[in-house]
Amino acid sequence: MIAQLAKLMNRAVGSKHFLLIGSLAVTTLGALLRFGNLANPHNLIFDETYYVKDAWTLGQTGTEKDWPANFDPSFEGGNFTDYTARGSYVVHPPLGKWVIYLGMWLFGADSSFGWRFSVALLGTLAIPLIIGTAKILLRSNKFAVLAGGFLAVEGHSIVMSRTSVLDGVLAFFVLLGFFFVVVDQSRLPSPDRMISFRPWLLLAAIAFGAAAATKWSGLYFLAAFGLFTLLSDLMHKTQHGGRIWSAYLQAGANALTMILASVSIYIVSWSGWILTDGGWGRTAKPTWWESLWEYHLNAYRFHTGLGSDHPYQANAWQWLVSARPTAFFFEKYDDCSLLDHCTVAITAVPNMAIWIGGVIAAFWASFRFLKLQDRTAGLIATGFLAGWAPWLVYLERTTFQFYTVVFSAFLVLALCYALQRYLKRGYTLRLVEKRTRAITGFIVLTMLLTVYFASIWMGLEVPNWVWQMQMWFPFWV
């Protein structure tokens, strides 16, 4: 059966319209997994209690406002006006909440579909975005569509696209910035040129600035890819006889471009707080920039001192094996729409085949870059390490598995690159066919796992025994 599927796939890949048709197919699949049953549950789940309510007051007043204690049931029931006049102390920048507000503005604050619409839209748009990125990076229609397919059915990406928290927004802006970096690296200027304006790096800086304006961890990607472009320019000029010192001039120009662009976007995202006087700490100092700096010092102290225990906390080492996936929602019901008794759960369990394969491939890409100076491996490894390695410094801090959604796309790209290299090393036609069957079997496995885990990714009603089967390990419960 796998052999027959492999033959069908090879035939489809040979079609001149494969890239378009394949991209539409996997994007449609991803959209169904992200938008299907999106309005359920009609509850503020996990950190939606902060971001949805903050987004609403941000859109109504320009700044986040405090709500009365234990207000979630009232908000869910349709009370959207009883927020206080007091500014709310929040520790993340505003842009992600502005994105969330867009869906609420379109569909109303009473719509749980509206709460999650914008994040689901960005999660869906990430699929054609990764296809375009992989097309340039891997120079293969087949593996570009495969990257889109893997992201479409990756569990973290699905759950974080269906939950109105900031990490799904962050992941989109990071992937967008990476796309622009990849385009820049595919169009490096002549090594003889002393200095060049790099418009794609400017766009990358804007995207990474938007990521940082969603969560500060977006800065890791700005710094990591800024450093990567320096190393890449040095390699480019060394390999083609250019002047090494001009690479440092180029690095200075790149740094100036990227810093100015990203900082500008970041400050603009605070416009509501700057232009009004009702935000928390807005009038703490004589000028808005002094008040904003003081605000950031407070937020930094909060982030670095965050150490309260949480039943679903997981550190960066645990992320690699999905040791403690985050449960966003769990309820048992006696009266369900289709069943007499049912369980509804939402848990950010990854598609384990893609996840474990992707982690192995990401480390392989890192070693390949160090050993061979492979630019493709280096780009992918930089994205993975920028999203994962900084958190090794904060192993004692309260962190969660769902933070990994920001580098899920890089695991997908690493996996596709590793599979591409694996296929290319088939020196005989017979070996190529054997490896094609192996890759086809792996794809089938990912689809079976998608069916297996779909209910806890989408919050679907199932008998309790189904949910118990999905919890593979005691430490997942």
Provide a descriptive summary of the structure in words:
It contains 20 helices and 2 strands. The protein has one domain (2-164, 305-476). The mean pLDDT is 92. It has helices at 2-13, 18-35, 48-61, 72-76, 95-107, 112-138, 141-152, 155-161, 166-186, 199-212, 218-239, 244-269, 271-275, 288-304, 316-319, 352-372, 375-388, 405-424, 429-458, 464-470; strands spanning 327-333, 342-347. The protein starts with a helix and ends in a 7-residue tail after the last helix. With 477 residues, the chain is mostly helical. 65% of the residues lie in helices and 3% in strands.
Any idea what the shape is?
globular
| SSE run | HHHHHHHHHHHHHHHEEHHHHH
Alpha-carbon Rg, integer? 23 Å
Q: Which sequence of strands runs across the widest sheet?
A: 1-2
Number of helices: 20
Number of domains: 1
Largest sheet: 2 strands, antiparallel
Report mean pLDDT, rounded to a whole number. 92
Q: Which structural class do you get from the secondary structure elements? A: mainly alpha
In summary, what is this structure?
Helix 9 (about 165-185) packs across helix 18. This protein is mostly helical and about 475 residues long.
Main features:
477 residues, two-stranded antiparallel sheet, 2 strands, mainly alpha, globular, 3% strand
Annotate the secondary structure layout.
Blueprint: H1 2-13, H2 18-35, H3 48-61, H4 72-76, H5 95-107, H6 112-138, H7 141-152, H8 155-161, H9 166-186, H10 199-212, H11 218-239, H12 244-269, H13 271-275, H14 288-304, H15 316-319, E1 327-333, E2 342-347, H16 352-372, H17 375-388, H18 405-424, H19 429-458, H20 464-470
Helix pairs in contact: 1-19, 2-6, 2-7, 3-5, 5-6, 6-7, 6-8, 6-9, 7-18, 8-19, 9-10, 9-11, 9-18, 10-11, 10-12, 11-12, 11-17, 16-17, 16-18, 17-18, 18-19
